[in-house]
Design goal:
There is one protein chain. The chain is an alpha+beta fold. The chain contains 12 helices and 10 strands. The longest helix is centred in the C-terminal third of the chain and has 35 residues.
């Protein structure tokens, strides 16, 4: 067997492979003999017909295709093994004309070679310079307690004009030029008047309204509104008031706190909130520093970024973006004005960074022999399944779940290793 290879780009290689007549016959003859033995001719028992007659009944085109498939599969495996290539996509095969034997061309995508910089030094420097001290302010604890009190407020229906801090039940609809406007309607929506759930100007127009009344007003959407086609747009609203409720806030004391569960005093509650917030902030800070550290590690590494890896990652990100948008609009994905191509363009840099990060993490794990144990992978997979709704967990592909959990555990090990260098 003879073969040549040409490096195209981004870990894609073009191979040209030639098998002479004798080499190809090793693949062709077994297939032909098997086809010959299965020929059934009238008047002869299977396998007893004269070879000349049986040969004429063999589907030579099918035999050739099967022999080529076997030859390509075996020889391509040998070539990739010799070059220590790991295929990451289905090869593209083209059989070329050859007077004798077999000649074919294969375009293959392989896992890229990653050349790391001094990742130990880079990681240590990033950790030393980036990590900031975490602090929880008293006002943050006060806001958290206020949220708890609000969630346990007693509501009393009242027959009076609405004022700030009341809870309102409303139906609302937005119109432009007399026509209903997608994404600006809601039914049986409850909210605290004055909390700023709606765009500026909306809630102010409901102050002074009573149950059963309908408010009609016009509001201009902010210039920095998240949905581009709604910025600075004037929308006419009709709001039906279904209920006005006065809130009676509970008193913050030890008796109230004991009703929350495991707390004996207000001070114990505040301590618990502080500890929870501190942990959350530390986790966020650690994640921020990890991202900064990975940016530096990726910059110091050298590798090709395979198009197929980028495309797969981008496909997943686009689908997640569309799913999230569909939920955000509450009216379905069709309300999202962005095309798939626009979304892909928006997310491409993020996808590129994600692939690059995973390649670097994989190489560090390989160099440092940070291999997850079967038990660690199983525990991570079980945690993932436990976080899902039961009806969805049964649809999870076991192999995909294993690969996902293996990668998550491996990445975690790499970060723990790097952070241990500080």
């Amino acid at each position: 067997m003879k073969h040549t290879s040409k490096n195209l780009k981004n870990s894609v290689f073009e191979l040209e492979v030639i098998l002479d007549q004798k080499e190809f016959l090793e693949y062709y003859q077994p297939v032909f003999d098997k086809a010959l033995s299965s020929v059934h001719l009238k008047g002869f028992r299977p396998g007893t017909a004269p070879k000349e007659m049986a040969s004429q009944a063999v589907n030579n085109e099918k035999v050739f295709e099967e022999a080529v498939h076997k030859a390509v599969s075996v020889t391509l495996k040998e070539i990739t093994f010799q070059n220590e290539w790991q295929l990451i996509d289905q090869p593209k095969i083209e059989v070329l004309e050859s007077p004798t034997g077999l000649k074919y061309k294969a375009v293959i995508s392989v896992f890229p070679e990653v050349k790391l910089g001094d990742y130990r030094k880079t990681a240590k420097k990033a950790l030393d310079s980036e990590m900031k001290e975490v602090k929880v302010e008293d006002r943050e604890i006060d806001d958290s307690i206020k949220y708890i009190l609000n969630s346990r407020a007693k509501l009393t229906r009242v027959n009076r004009e609405a004022k700030n801090n009341d809870v309102l039940d409303i139906d609302f609809a937005g119109f432009a030029d007399g026509k209903a406007l997608d994404g600006t309607s809601g039914k049986a929506d409850s909210f605290v008047l004055g909390d700023g759930k709606f765009i500026p100007g909306f809630e102010e127009n409901l102050i002074g309204k009573k149950e059963g009344e309908t408010a009609k007003f016009t509001v201009t959407f902010p210039g920095d509104y998240w949905k581009a086609d709604m910025r600075n747009r004037k929308v006419d609203f009709e709001v039906k008031i279904h209920g006005v409720y006065e809130r009676q806030m509970p008193e913050l004391n030890d008796e109230f706190v004991k009703g929350l569960g495991k707390f004996e005093s207000v001070e114990a509650l505040r301590k618990n909130i502080r500890e929870g917030m501190t942990k959350e902030k530390i986790d966020k800070e650690k994640e921020r520093v990890r991202l900064k550290m990975m940016e530096q590690l990726v910059k110091s590494a050298r590798f090709d970024l395979p198009d197929v890896m980028l495309a797969r990652t981008l496909d997943g990100m686009v689908q997640e973006y569309k799913d999230y948008s569909a939920l955000a609009f509450k009216g379905g994905e069709k309300q999202n004005p962005e095309t798939d191509e626009e979304i892909r363009k928006k997310l491409e840099d993020k996808a590129r960074q994600s692939v690059a990060t995973n390649l670097v993490l994989f190489q560090i794990a390989k160099d440092e022999k940070l291999e997850p144990t079967p038990q660690e992978v199983e525990e991570d997979a079980n945690r993932y399944l436990a976080s899902m709704r039961r009806e969805h967990s049964k649809d999870v592909d076991p192999q995909k779940l294993y690969d996902y959990s293996y990668g998550m555990v491996q990445n975690r090990k790499v970060f723990e290793f790097l952070e241990g260098l500080k």
